[in-house]
């Protein structure tokens, strides 16, 4: 309807402009041949047209050469014929009725004011409709080829050139899910299958529209079309071969030996052609969904960077890369069970897993409980899968972590917060079973949803509590992450200020502080230097007792309370043998 209205409006404007320009051309040609002012006046009066004031007084001015101003619409045969005749008769510029060329300020008006207003309104409407027709701002911006694809990335399938796509709708691919070669197909075969799927979808839509005309009842009998389709599917499944012959088995074995896991196994004759085609459609649909996520920026190309994880009732943005298996890493989002830490691909799989998962707390022994805070000791040798999943999870938020799969020499201390649904992971730290440098922490992490709530200092305090029970002096393993260094510096500061507040003597020893707090002397000295409490005077090192820092610490302790502290009496633990 918009196109028809647009054509009618253009035709009206074109017809009126052609008529006006024809009359104006005739009148101007007559006025150029007649030099008598009276004839010009009679001509103007008889045609009912008006002459502007500037044109009446233009006889005494110097003539300027200007081309004839044409109407807004151009292209009619009459217009071209009249203009050509005028040019043949006189090659000089057209004159006004006064005999002079039109001035730059005003020209002859050869239409009435009412017609001008109407023409301007129609022309304005026409221009607005044309602008709306060509306006593509409401459409999504189409990505150019070089913007959609990163040519530095390649498909991980050996021998693949990254051309084509399993869906048949894209020119390139960068993952196994969209690789035609991995699925034992070519790019042309994928395009042919895509066109076939489109035709089937159109036929299905048409049949659904025909079925919508039927009255919907609760116990509705199937239509003839549905019965025929059911018989067709039954016949196709009946034709399936019950087994593989010797040649097919040899072909399959040769394919497996030559390609291994780098190619999909041959699927022909394993099931019916109908079921195999359904499986191919499902693969193409999943690959198309992944491609949409990649173009939307939710899946990064080739870097296997997991951007978000669904963990319990939280959705967490990751910070760093973690070496999850490729089929999980390329998804961009992982779904995790917060109790057993198993990672899954979709929300549906997670929901089914949660219905069957019997874990409500970490494996291992509960060695500390106060209120709703508990700490579990997990042996990396006894619970290898859980500890590996914990390390992979921690790597998403730690930059310097290098331990992923070799978890047997380590003990993991997992802190949880309990409610009526189970014990939720707050954080953890790991330590070597036999550390020659007396490291009491190898890796420490507080989950992002529990950061800045005091749980990090509780984990650090708990690690030093274990060192006190072992009667050792501990220190964290280097290098520390940025957040880890901030947490440890804050903890060491509080320990020293608490010790100096309770100290009543005049002479103090770094060794005594280390033995009482289980903090390494190197860490004590570095903390005193950062607080500007260690001075060298007359050949001796002096520790300054800065009362201003102690008063600030007291005020913060009073304001914070004792809710996020470790109670040594709640620990039920004996050091493992051999440590």
UniProtKB/TrEMBL annotation:
Q: Which reaction does it catalyse?
A: L-lysyl-[protein] + acetyl-CoA = N(6)-acetyl-L-lysyl-[protein] + CoA + H(+)
Where are the catalytic residues? 477 (proton donor/acceptor)
- Start and end of every MYST-type HAT domain? 301-575
The entry's localization annotation reads: Chromosome, Centromere; Cytoplasm, Cytosol; Nucleus
Q: Where is this region: Disordered?
A: 1-119, 190-250
Q: Which domain of life is it from?
A: Eukaryota
Report the GO molecular function annotations. chromatin binding; histone H3K14 acetyltransferase activity; histone H4 acetyltransferase activity; transcription coregulator activity; zinc ion binding
Enzyme Commission designation: 2.3.1.48
List compositional bias (Polar residues) regions by residue number.
Answer: 53-63
> Where does it mainly reside?
nucleus
> PANTHER family, per this entry?
HISTONE ACETYLTRANSFERASE, HISTONE ACETYLTRANSFERASE KAT7
User: What family does the database annotate?
Assistant: Belongs to the MYST (SAS/MOZ) family.
Protein name listed in UniProt: Histone acetyltransferase
Q: Which organism is it from?
A: Oreochromis aureus (Israeli tilapia)
Gene expressing this chain: KAT7
């Amino acid at each position: 309807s918009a196109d028809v209205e647009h054509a009618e409006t253009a035709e009206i404007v074109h017809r009126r402009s052609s008529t006006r320009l024809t009359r104006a051309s005739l009148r101007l040609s007559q006025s150029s041949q007649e030099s008598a002012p009276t004839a010009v006046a009679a001509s103007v009066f008889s045609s009912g047209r008006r002459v502007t004031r500037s044109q009446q007084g233009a006889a005494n001015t110097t003539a300027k050469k200007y081309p004839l101003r044409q109407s807004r619409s151009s292209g009619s045969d009459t217009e071209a014929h009249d203009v050509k005749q005028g040019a043949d008769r006189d090659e000089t510029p057209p004159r006004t009725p006064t005999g002079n060329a039109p001035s730059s300020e005003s020209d002859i008006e050869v239409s009435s004011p009412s017609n001008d207003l109407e023409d301007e309104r129609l022309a304005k409407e026409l221009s607005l409709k044309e602008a709306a027709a060509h306006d593509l701002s409401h459409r999504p911006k189409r990505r150019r080829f070089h913007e959609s694809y990163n040519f530095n990335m390649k498909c991980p399938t050996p021998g693949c050139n990254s051309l084509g796509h399993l869906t048949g709708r894209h020119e390139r691919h960068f993952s196994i899910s969209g690789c035609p070669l991995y699925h034992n197909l070519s790019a042309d075969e994928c395009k042919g299958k895509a066109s076939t799927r489109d035709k089937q979808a159109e036929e299905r839509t048409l049949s659904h529209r025909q079925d919508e005309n039927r009255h919907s009842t609760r116990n509705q009998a199937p239509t003839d079309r549905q019965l025929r389709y059911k018989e067709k599917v039954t016949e196709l499944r009946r034709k399936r071969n019950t087994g593989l012959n010797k040649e097919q088995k040899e072909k399959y074995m040769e394919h497996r030996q030559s390609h291994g896991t780098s190619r999909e196994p041959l699927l022909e004759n394993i099931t019916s052609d109908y079921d195999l085609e359904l499986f191919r459609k499902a693969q193409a649909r999943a690959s198309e969904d992944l491609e949409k996520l990649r173009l939307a920026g939710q899946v990064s190309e080739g870097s296997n960077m997991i951007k978000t994880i669904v963990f319990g009732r939280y959705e967490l943005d990751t910070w760093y890369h973690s070496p999850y298996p490729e089929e999980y890493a390329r998804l961009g989002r992982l779904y995790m069970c917060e109790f057993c830490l198993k990672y899954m691909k979709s929300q549906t799989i997670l929901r089914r897993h949660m219905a069957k998962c019997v874990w409500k707390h970490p494996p291992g022994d509960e060695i500390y409980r106060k209120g709703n805070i508990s700490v579990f000791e997990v042996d990396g040798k006894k619970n290898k899968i859980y500890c590996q999943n914990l390390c992979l999870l921690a790597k998403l938020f730690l930059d310097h972590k290098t331990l992923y799969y070799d978890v047997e020499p380590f003990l993991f201390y997992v802190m949880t917060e309990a409610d009526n649904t189970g014990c939720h992971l707050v954080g953890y730290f790991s330590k070597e079973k036999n550390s020659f440098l007396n490291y009491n922490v190898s890796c420490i992490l507080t989950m992002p949803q529990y950061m800045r709530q005091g749980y990090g200092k509780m984990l650090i305090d708990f690690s030093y509590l274990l060192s006190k029970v072992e009667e050792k002096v501990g220190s964290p393993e280097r290098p520390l992450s940025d957040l880890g260094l901030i947490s440890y510096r804050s903890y060491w500061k509080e320990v020293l200020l608490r010790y100096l507040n309770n100290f009543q003597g005049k002479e103090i020893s770094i060794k005594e502080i280390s033995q009482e707090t289980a903090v390494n002397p190197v860490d004590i000295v570095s903390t005193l230097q950062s607080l500007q409490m260690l001075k060298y005077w007359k050949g001796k090192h002096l520790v300054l007792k800065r009362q201003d820092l102690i008063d600030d610490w007291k005020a913060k302790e009073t304001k914070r309370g004792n809710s996020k502290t470790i109670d040594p009496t709640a620990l039920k633990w004996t050091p493992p043998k051999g440590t």
